[in-house]
């Protein structure tokens, strides 16, 4: 006789999903571009479209949400596979906080993972995103892409070198930065608008994010010269 099927087993808890959040509400004044730098043409496309193209090529992401400034319609007609929320704030931290609330309103769970990525890091690749996901999925805290510091580090607050700082154990933070939605939301609310990345808010809670090796090419376009370098790199990839 065949064994009876068990009908009183508890249902399996849903696996946490992965979401990408792209804060895209800044003006980028240091870049001195004619338009907000995320929309500056680069290798034939607006800069941010290169960024979003990389995330669109990561099948494990359940959603990609772009947080733009209220009234910003630049992405409305591009028809790319992402969602837009007009929830940008005065600071990057405020924009990310608002984006997390928007994700919750769209059905994301507190236990879901969120990968926050700078719109202006347009040289990120799907392989880098996957590397971060693979490293962090089994981690209790989460983590970020980062690059070990290779150059000699100087302290020069007035334009003159006053001291040479040790570079051992120092990393350049990159994005994406991947944390649980609920934990990240609490961390940012406690830290306030002064934090410049998600990891620093997590660190302020006494947690230690995982450092995952990134790439020197995953730099944030900030200064005018950065655009020429990014253009050359993107053109070389297209070729």
- Helix and strand sequence: EEEHEEHEHEEEEHHEH
CATH superfamily: Spore Coat Polysaccharide Biosynthesis Protein SpsA, Chain A
- Write down the CATH topology: Spore Coat Polysaccharide Biosynthesis Protein SpsA, Chain A
- Class by SSE composition: alpha/beta
Summed up, the helix count is 6
Q: Numbering strands along the chain, what is their spatial order in the largest sheet? A: 5-4-1-6-10-7-11
Shape: globular
Tell me, what is the CATH class?
Alpha Beta
Tell how many strands the DSSP assignment holds: 11
The chain-level mean pLDDT equals: 91
Describe what you observe in this structure.
- The model has no long low-confidence stretch (mean pLDDT 91).
- By secondary structure, the chain is an alpha/beta fold.
- A hairpin with a 2-residue loop joins strand 2 and strand 3.
- The chain is 28% helix and 21% strand.
- It contains 6 helices and 11 strands.
- It has helices at 47-56, 92-105, 126-136, 181-191, 198-204, 224-238, and strands at 18-23, 41-42, 45-46, 61-67, 83-85, 113-116, 143-148, 153-155, 163-165, 171-180, 210-213.
- It has one domain (18-155, 166-238): Spore Coat Polysaccharide Biosynthesis Protein SpsA, Chain A (Alpha-Beta Complex), CATH 3.90.550.
- The longest helix has 15 residues, at 224-238.
- It is globular and about 50 Å long.
- Strands 5-4-1-6-10-7-11 form a 7-stranded mixed sheet, sandwiched between helices.
- Helix 2 (92-105) packs antiparallel against helix 4 and helix 4 (181-191) packs across helix 5.
